[in-house]
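FAQ: What does a multi-protein file look like?

Like this. Sequence, then tokens, then the next protein.
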Amino acid sequence: MDFNFTQNLHYCQEIVQDLSGLLYYSHIPSTIAALIIGIFVLIKSRFSLLGKILFSISLVFSIWGILNLLIWIFYYKNSLVMSAWAPIEVFAILLFILCFYFTYVFETKKDAPLWTKCIMFAPLLLPIFLTPTNYNLSGFDIQECIAIENPYYVDYVIGVRAIVSLCIVLFSVYQYFRADKTFRKQILLLSIGISIFLLSFVLAGYVSVQTDVFEYEAVGLFGMVVFVGFLGYLIVRFNTFNIKLIAAQAIVVSLVFLIGSQFFFIQNNTNRILTGITLILSIVFGYFLVKSVNREIIQREKIEKLAIDLEKANQELKDLDRQKDELISIVSHQLATPVTSVKWYIEMLLDGDSGEMTEEQKKQLMTMQGVTEDLVDLVGMILDVSRIQLGRMKVDRAPLDMGTFFTEVLAVIEPKATVKKQQFIKSLPKTLPTASLDKRLMRMTLENLLSNAVKYTPEGGKVELTVTVKDHTLRYSVKDSGCGIPKEEQDKIFSKLFRATNVRNTEGNGLGLFAAKGAAEAQGGKVWFESESGKGTTFFVEVPLEEATN
């Protein structure tokens, strides 16, 4: 049968009409989606390099989609088909190269060197030169209503697509293992989205050529919608491109876009009306949803800002407190020398080194000596507290005979208990080991606890010291029958300058327990207590014993 041009056109027309729904639904929505995300990112990122590259991808994809749609729609105009078909592969290769460039900049967070760009875009040179020649399109097949392509040229284009896609995957894998954990998720999401997009392009083009069923090429465009979805998630979840976009906005826009895209293939007027009503309702309700969510986000951001400001203020207070401790440490250190000198001169006068004195003079000097000793103790306490607060407590370990140590401390404390007619009970092992400890810090803890016990126990009360050694650990407890610590104040008892509210007619500076705890902890020990208001308090101390070495 002879070829009939009119019948052939009718045949081509039937094919296009049958596929019109797929063609419009695959080309127009995907093109619009690409342009929307490209323009949105370009503007919101303030024309950053990534924004420009993504916009270029969306623009090239849109041009490719328009050219491809023109080829299908104007099948009967061979001159238009040839004009649209000739450059289409140039845009296809450019699209893949731009995706690779985008991946590089996104994952390395910097622009590619000039030589890298030259290598990236080199495969584009051959298609540009061959586009207007017969090595690209050699003619037009009237029977099939398609242009006749050079098979070698087609293989080259498909090969370049495949190689660029493989380079993107390999580069993303390489960058994934170099990135930190947070950025790895972004690399993974981007590589998956862009791989699905490009793979759908490669497979669709390859299957179309191999089967001569070019409808498959239209299906490949849906990969762009998937890619846009991944980009949208990256923006919402990670503020990619430095863009803030709430999930509600993305969902509403996606919903409106999907509903609106149905107009491209609906042929029934009733369905058009129902879809239009649904679209309007989606826009209205979506607007109020976004507005409500946005209001909550603004409130949350204000709270977060207040929290940041509070944290900053807290840090400033800590810095001021540290500066105050530095100042106290310096002042205390400067006070220690003159106070010690005064004490030394008083002792010289009392010893008669400057001549005989009357009894009244000696009495006055002894009063001054007591006050001076209290002042020396206070300055020393302040210095120790400052060192603890600043983390400068120095530990000087040396062999310490624990038996002798407890005897010396008790010789100072027991007379104080005797003056108050207190019952002082001590329970110590017959023998105590020699261990490597800091005698000054050990004395600071024990003397403070025992002095407090005697001080806060009324006349006629009872103070108990119990000492044990087990598993290379020294443990002792100091129990008193004093006023105890109110339950609501027990969490503050080791705080600096704190004194319980139920303490009456007893002098104190609120530094003893803070210093006792700090001294024990400096040697790897710990201090804790048990107390009940009105029933006394028991403090417990544990210090690890290191073997003494000479």
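And here is the next protein:
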Amino acid sequence: MKAYRKIHDFKQPRVLPFWITNKSYYRWMSVIIAISTILAFIVVLISTYLDIPFSQVKTSDFKLNEVAPTDFIVSRNITYVDVKATKAARDAIDRTVPPIFELNNEVKGDSLGMFNTFISILTGYASKDAAPEAVMKEIQIKLPRAAHFFDKNEITALLSIVKRNKEVIESTGIILEEVMDTGIFHRLEEMVARNPELFSEEKIDFWRNDNQHEEIPLDKALSLGNLQDWIENRTKKLPLNEVNKSLVILLVLSFAEENAFYNRVKTEENKKRAREQVKPVMLELAKNYTIVRKGDIVTEEALEKIQAHGVSDISLNISNILATVFIIIIVLSLAITLFSRGIIQIRLRKNRILMLAGIFILSLILITLLSKIPFNSTWLSFSVWFPLCSIALVVSLLIGPNVGLIFSLIISVTLLLMTKMNVNAFVFSFLTALAGCVVSLKIRKRIDIIIAGLVLSLYSSFVLITIGFIYNFDINELFWALLWGVFNGFLYGGILSTGLLTLLEHILNAATRFRLLELSDLNAPTFKRMLNFAPGTYNHSILMANLAEIACTEIGANALLARVGAYYHDIGKLDQPGYFIENQTSDNVHDDLKPSLSVAVIKSHVKLGVEKAKELKLPQEVIDIIAQHHGKGLISYFYHRAMDENNNIKISPDDYRYPGERPKSKEAAVVMLSDIVEAASRTLKRPTVSKLEKLIWKIIMDKFTTDELSDCNLTLNELEIIKNSFVRILTGHFHTRIEYPKVKENLR
């Protein structure tokens, strides 16, 4: 436990991002992504232009009211604007916009000012008992606009009222102000007669100020034509006799003026905004539709369609281009993020990236072609034809289920975007792909793929039936749901996956479970030779494979890959087995060699092992384990021996290190640790559990503190698990037996 607590005193060595430490890998990935982007852009853009982009028939050959020189057939589905229908729709909305009238408060002030001046004149002359002629003369001088409204008798009556009945004057002022606040519309009857279309809705948009406006019915609008009627209705409530009421009406009519004026600019702006909100009326021309036949007269409607087809042929749809760009940006951003090493926990190799890019481009092409298949059903999508479950299953088996799941998600999102948000296609494809990734975890033999296909067929049928119930499909369609589910699940997930996996496994030389099982056969010629010429290495590899397999199983790594890597890790020793201690039966040949020469021989087995692995065409993952199983470790025995022979003169330790690279995967790191632990455990005399624990933990911590484990993502908890598994296996290997008594010779 003390050793375990000391672990926390160490900091995990800082690991630089893989794009810094692996620049060539980053360049490769950038090139592949760039090429994939260009190809994907072309495929998605062409998906709406599958046919000939330019019509072989010239639109200029067709003239209005002339004979068509040839048939004009639509080469692909196009959408165009119906100019006439659009204009009609906009004209209709134009007529619904009421005219705008604005209240002018200055006119109200002028009107009330004139009235008050008029009353002042009357009051002044009434106090002097002046003659009506003098009053009229004064009014003509000061109020020329109001003078013609009054004659001598009316002035006489008003002079009398000013003296005796001021209620008439007060009522007149109140009604006059009320009239001006209500608003008198300028030449309203004349405008209605001249522009009836402006008042087709029979209402007016009346603005009293910049923030207050209301729509009033046309028949309720006040004008000079109906002003007298409005005033008469208003005076009926006054407690005056008929003579006085008539004087009130006269005064209000005399001083009331039009103060609501038509605003042409604002009205036109409103109409323009309303027209702009009307979307163009779109018409569609289906592929192979004949607009006009040879010998027919070209009508105006036919000519409009021909011209629309011609414009569509020679122009690019900017919305399609932008949509394509956005689709590519979304998908690539998703791919770059999800395929980062921090998420998928593995480093994708060049051939794997090329494979994924190729499958992605082929998927785009297939989606484009399948989307043209007409499906009349509301619940059945063309995605039943798309083998995404097979793609997910194959990618999961070739690379890993995490990559298969992420890749399926990327293709599903692409399918969703390219099919204009066809949710049914996305749901079915992604769910069946998810099932493909899940069943890949249970596949151990090739026959299991066929069984997985049967499981996927049932699952696909269930998904289709569920979608059908959501859309209330007819129960008679249940048979078709089952049929399509079997087709997609068994034929794609089972049969197609078997063929694709075999092909891609051979092309990529992938370390699939099936390939690794073949390589784990100890009856292979390589192991036969190892058993005969390097039996110590053979036995060391067998025990080491057991250690690595159990440890990888317990930390969730690829146990079969670790076992195969352990089997082959020392094949570089086959050419010179006698130079390695486990194969020596007599004297040690290194006793007669200089340490520098001995180290050269020892180090060479890694390089020779990689060369032999390539000759055997082993998967790259196995080759990496061979190349990394010693890392950059120091060959300490010969280093210290060289120091002793040179009287402790300083010697560069780099000359006595393995030339390989540090383990890049958990499997390679476990193989490295199991190699050292298996060899070191043989040096223990009477090994016990405590001795093994101490030795193994010291070896692990030495590798940890010298940064040998800095690139493999092993955690401290996983190192503890690995240690415990090593102790358990080696304790069983070095178990003690009871000492049997010697058997006496038979006595006759």
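Q: Is there any per-entry metadata?
A: Some entries carry free-text notes. For the entry above: The chain has 32 helices and eight strands.
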